[in-house]
Amino acid sequence: MAAKYERGEVWIVDFGFVAKIRPALILSVGDDEQDRALVTCVSHTTSLRSSQYEIPVSASFLKPGAFLVQNLVTVSRAKLMNRLGRLAAEDLEKVEAGVRSWPGL
Question: Which CATH number fits domain 9-101: 2.40.30.110, 1.10.150.20, 1.10.290.10, 2.30.30.110?
Answer without folding.
Answer: 2.30.30.110
